[in-house]
């Protein structure tokens, strides 16, 4: 039974990563210097709520590493960590929040705030040259990254909330 449970958990994590990869290509819009609005965060946040923070962090980090292959854009070695590994891995902290509608809203918001902070650091430190002349790179990075992460958060929360209200058992680890 323990092996089956571990196998099932690993399978669910893998399916979540696979769905995130598929959603990665179904972008609603894409920013000129990277970043886009898609549904890719939804499966990562979902597995965090369903299986906990550890599984969510693992799923997010694996998705982040795989998305390097898709995007193929590494401007600096630090970018691997800030833009991919940490930025998506931190989405798993949503799993620390309760499995109810307010937990989904708050957990998703905190997790995406974490992603935003890693993207903010990357933008201000690694991509400061993209800021218009005379503009503080931290302000530019805040506006740039917020312009796609805020809509992505709203979409993710809306979809996860609808899923919670229509299929609440999916958020339980005990689903057969």
Write a structural description.
By secondary structure, this protein is mainly α. It has a single domain (2-171), classed as Arp2/3 complex 21 kDa subunit ARPC3, CATH 1.10.1760.20. The protein has 6 helices and 2 strands; from the N terminus they run αββααααα. It has helices at 2-25, 41-51, 53-71, 77-89, 101-126, 137-166; strands spanning 29-30, 36-37. A two-stranded antiparallel ribbon has the order 1-2. Helix 2 runs antiparallel to helix 3, helix 4 runs antiparallel to helix 5 and helix 5 (101-126) runs antiparallel to helix 6. The protein is globular.
Provide a brief overview of the structure.
The chain has 176 residues and is an all-alpha fold. The protein has helices at 2-25, 41-51, 53-71, 77-89, 101-126, 137-166; strands at residues 29-30, 36-37.
Low-pLDDT stretches are none
Number of strands: 2
Number of helical regions: 6
Helix content: 55-70%
CATH architecture: Orthogonal Bundle
